[in-house]
Structures are given as structure tokens and as C-alpha cells.
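#lab-general

N.A. 3:47 PM
ok so I finally got the sequence cleaned up, no stray characters, all 280 residues accounted for. can someone with queue access submit it? mine expired

B.Y. 3:52 PM
send it over

N.A. 3:53 PM
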Amino acid sequence: MGYKTILVHVADVPNAGVGYAFAAELAQAEQVHLIGLASSGVSRFLRETVTVNAAGPSMAPFLDTLRGRAARVLDQFERVAAGFTLAGSERRAVDDEPRYSLSALARYCDLCVLNQADAVQGASLPAPGLAAEVAKNSGTPVLMVPRAQAPAWPLRRILLGWNGSREAARAMRFALPLLRRASAVEVAILDAAALDSAGGELRPVTAIGQTLARHGVRAELLQRDSAGDAGAALLALAGERGAQLLVMDCYGHSRLRELLLGGATRTVLKSMTLPVFMAA
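B.Y. 4:20 PM
back already:
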């Protein structure tokens, strides 16, 4: 089973074109439909603006400016997409906030591509928790593109982070089209002794290799000590092994949006230098 529809978040962020091109590369390789979705921010503006009549004439210039900005970033997306041979592509503009609009549309897609948040630029750019929210609320995997550098293509070397969790299993299954294309797949198993002891007779360390093999993916198992920071350990291992993509679980445990991310997920999304594929 492969991908049929890829959704990419279109926004006014630094190096946004890199994310669009990466999504288009993947859509071209899979020969699938690509959708670019932009949010004007009108809903948030109206919610945070004190006004008697949101539909009044005085508000029109502000709303036009916001919608015009969304149209311009969608124009950029279309220019990038036009450089690829795609099965199909389209642009969509909505007034709702990205966390709602992306989550809603992603339920009808197979993969959602986002650009990494820029902590320096602040609140005007996608929040670090946006990827986790979309993955959790849509049930669709998310692929984050790093802001620091253009990702390599094609994705020949993939590192799969494995902790035996439900989320890691979903990430592995959703990533199978990419894993099958790769020439080298390595499975990072942190603190393997603890993982196997928790799995009882199942022995998760052995089982993940067997499962991938049955899907036609030959993988090398790498066992490492996390030293208490799984996210940093995964990123370090990815750099050491020359990985071009990290596949991992996206764990959220807090009811507060600001604390949505688990520790490993938060570390990776903040410090990533390679694309990261996640599922919740």
C-alpha cells in the first residue's frame, strides 16, 4: 500500500519553498496527488480583535490583506509544484487556524508535510507542537522538513526509532513506502534490555526485524544507550549513520497544548537537521 494524496502546509516562513519542493519530490516519486493548504489567519484575527461588527466595512481591508498574503504563498507553492511531473496538484485557502484546517484535511490524505518551526521568529511561524497536534488529531503521519538545510533526495538511508510503542508501530507502518525505497534501513533500539524485559516472551528487539523483513525491508538493528535523553540519542545516531530521514513515534501526554510533546519528540522537533517522519 502506497500514498495517494500528500498534503503540504503552505505558509509565509523562511525557506518555505524547500518544504514545497520536498513534498513535490515525494509526490512525483509516488505519482500521487499533492495539495497545498494555506491559512489566511482571518479566524484568529477576528477572535483577537475587539470589534462590534466583524463584517463591517472597516474590517474589509484587514481581511483582504490577510487573504492576499495567503494567496501569495499559494502562488509560490504552485510555482514550485509546476517544476515537477505530478499526478495532480491543487491549492486551497482557508480562514481557519492551521492546527484545525490541517488536521481536518489530513484525515483525507495519506501524509502531511510541514516545515520545522523557527524558534527565533516566534509566534508568527508554525508552533513546535503543530506537528504533534496534526498527527494526533488527524491520525495521519506527519513529515517535518528541517529549516537548517535542504533535505537530500532521494531518501536512501533511513533510521527508524523503535521503542515498541503503539505510536512507533504506526510510524513504521505508515513509512513502509519510504522504507521499501531506501537502500539502507537501520533500526535504532535504545535501552534494548529494558525494552525486551518489558515485552516478555515477545522480545520486541527481535520481532521488529522480522516484521520489516516480511514487508520486504532488510534492516540492520542498532542498539544504543539513551543516557536518559532518547531524542538527543536518536539525532546523534542519525548523524553518525548518515541518515537522510528519521522515522519515530510522536508522543503526547499532556492536556495542555503547550506541553503536548513528549520529551524525545520535543527534543527532535527543536534540534532536527534531517526530515522527521512521525505518527501518533
